[in-house]
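Subject: design request, 274 residues
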C-alpha cells in the first residue's frame, strides 16, 4: 500500500487530498482494478477530524478498495459552499485521470461522508446528478461521476431546530445559498444509491437528518439501506478502540461498530465488490 498527499485546485482554490493506494497481489492470476472511496471527514466545517481519516481509510483498504481523503473547504474568510462541491468534482475528475498502472475501477467511485462531511456528500449526490444544478455550481467542467454514497451520522438539513448547526449565522458561513441547506431536497431520480447509518441518541446531529434523506430516496425510488442503532454518541467513527478518544469509553460502541460489516455486505449486494 502506498500513501501520498496531493495538492489540487478548483476555481482557483487550492486543496489537498490524501491517497491510500492498494498494491496488486503478486500471486493473483491477473491484475485487479479496485473501487475507490473518497472520504469527507467530519469536524463541524471548522476542521477535518483525523479520527475519520486514516483509521477509516485503512479499514476500507482492508476491504479491497483504494481510498482518497478529501480535505475540503472549511469555514473561514470564504464559505464552505460552493467550493466543497467543486473540490469533490475535481477530485473525481482527478481520479478518472489516474494512470492505468494505478488500477482504479473508475466506474466504482464511492463517496463517504461523516457528520459535516456527510452534508457535502449528501448535497453532491443531488447537485452533481441534476444537469441544471451541475451547471449552476460550475461542476460541468469536470469529468466523471460517482456510483454510490455512504453517510455516517450525517448533517442533512441545516434548518432542523436544536440540531447542528443551530444558528443562522453559522449556516450562512457554511453556505450563503439556502438552496444547499437541505440536502434531502436536492435529491432527484438520477441520484445514486446510498448506505446510511446513525444512532438514535445522537445529541449533536439529530437522527431526523438521516431519516429525512432516506425517506426522500424512498419517495424517488432510489436504492438505499439504512441502519439506526439504538444508542450511541455522535462521532463514533469506527466505534472501536482504534478511534476511541483516550479515557472516553463513550466512543466504544459494539453495536454501531457493525456498520462496517453491514456496509461490506451492501457493497457486495450492489455489485461494487466481489
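Subject: RE: design request

Done. Sequence follows.
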Amino acid at each position: 500500500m502506498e500513501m501520498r498527499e496531493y495538492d489540487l485546485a478548483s476555481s482557483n482554490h487550492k486543496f489537498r487530498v490524501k491517497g491510500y493506494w492498494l498494491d496488486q497481489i503478486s500471486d493473483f492470476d491477473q491484475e485487479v482494478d479496485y473501487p475507490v472511496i473518497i472520504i469527507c471527514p467530519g469536524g463541524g466545517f471548522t476542521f477535518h477530524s483525523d479520527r475519520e481519516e486514516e483509521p477509516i481509510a485503512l479499514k476500507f483498504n482492508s476491504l479491497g478498495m483504494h481510498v482518497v481523503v478529501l480535505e475540503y473547504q472549511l469555514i473561514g474568510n470564504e464559505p464552505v459552499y460552493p467550493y466543497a462541491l467543486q473540490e469533490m468534482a475535481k477530485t473525481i475528475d482527478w481520479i478518472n485521470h489516474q494512470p492505468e498502472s494505478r488500477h482504479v475501477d473508475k466506474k466504482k467511485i464511492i463517496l463517504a461522508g461523516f457528520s459535516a462531511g456527510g452534508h457535502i456528500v449528501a448535497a453532491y449526490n443531488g447537485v452533481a446528478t441534476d444537469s441544471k444544478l451541475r451547471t449552476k455550481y460550475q461542476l460541468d467542467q469536470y469529468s466523471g461521476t460517482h456510483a454510490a454514497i455512504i453517510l455516517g451520522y450525517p448533517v442533512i438539513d441545516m434548518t432542523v431546530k436544536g440540531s447542528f448547526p443551530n444558528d443562522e449565522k453559522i449556516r450562512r458561513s457554511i453556505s450563503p445559498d439556502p438552496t444547499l441547506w437541505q440536502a434531502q431536497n436536492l435529491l432527484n431520480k438520477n441520484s445514486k444509491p446510498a448506505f446510511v447509518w446513525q444512532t438514535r441518541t445522537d445529541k449533536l446531529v439529530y437522527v431526523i437528518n438521516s431519516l429525512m434523506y432516506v425517506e426522500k430516496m424512498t419517495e424517488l425510488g432510489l436504492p438505499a439501506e439504512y441502519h439506526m442503532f439504538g444508542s450511541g454518541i455522535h462521532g463514533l467513527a469506527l466505534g472501536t478502540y482504534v478511534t476511541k478518544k483516550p479515557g472516553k469509553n463513550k466512543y466504544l460502541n459494539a453495536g454501531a461498530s457493525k456498520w462496517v460489516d453491514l456496509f461490506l455486505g451492501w457493497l457486495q449486494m450492489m455489485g461494487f465488490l466481489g
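The first strand starts at residue 2 and ends at 10.
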